[in-house]
Amino acid sequence: MEKRAERLNSLLVQLFNDILHIEEKVLKSSEIKDLSITEIHTIDAIGTQGNRTMGEIAHDLRITVGTLTSAINRLIKKGYAERSRTEEDRRVVLVSLTEKGKHAYKIHADFHKEMVQATLNSYNDEEQEVLCDVIEKINIFFEDKYEGLQ
């Protein structure tokens, strides 16, 4: 059993690192090469639906609002995001993507779509279902186990 745990740990670490490495390489070879991985993931969390509060975005990224503020400031400076305030409560800060930000979002979403499709193409329907079920169970486990961490 110990050997299996070591193998799983090794596979999870390698998979996580490989995906980040591939994502960085693709990012640096694309037209959005001025963005870091952290910045593109922040763009993902803002999304294209419109205004989101800093609290909502920070929650999705599992970071503090203070940490998010630094990332948002960089994205605004680069022209990918913009801040606004609601008329109802001027204390509430909303963040949305600019057209440039929406374009970056699409490039990154297309990359993920292509990566997932290429992965699925390696398996038959039954294997795809098993793969999705196992990854879903792993995801639920980590969400439940480490829910309180930020």
Task: Outline the structure in words.
With 150 residues, the chain is mainly alpha-helical. The protein has one domain (34-145): Winged helix-like DNA-binding domain superfamily/Winged helix DNA-binding domain (Arc Repressor Mutant, subunit A), CATH 1.10.10.10. 68% of the residues lie in helices and 8% in strands. It contains six helices and three strands, in the order ααβααββαα. The protein has helices spanning 2-28, 37-46, 54-61, 65-78, 99-120, 125-145; strands at residues 52-53, 81-85, 93-97. It has a three-stranded antiparallel sheet. Helix 2 crosses helix 3. The two termini are 31 Å apart. Residues 1-140 form the HTH marR-type domain. InterPro entries: HTH_MarR-typ, WH-like_DNA-bd_sf, WH_DNA-bd_sf.
Under the CATH scheme, which class?
Mainly Alpha
Major beta sheet, specifics? Answer: 3 strands, antiparallel
Radius of gyration: 18 Å
Tell me how many strands there are.
3
Shape: globular
Strand content: 5-15%
Quaternary form: single chain
Give me the CATH superfamily: Winged helix-like DNA-binding domain superfamily/Winged helix DNA-binding domain
- The fold-level CATH name is Arc Repressor Mutant, subunit A
CATH architecture: Orthogonal Bundle
GO molecular function, one term: DNA-binding transcription factor activity
Keywords: DNA-binding, Transcription, Transcription regulation
Pfam families: MarR
Protein name: Transcriptional regulator MarR family
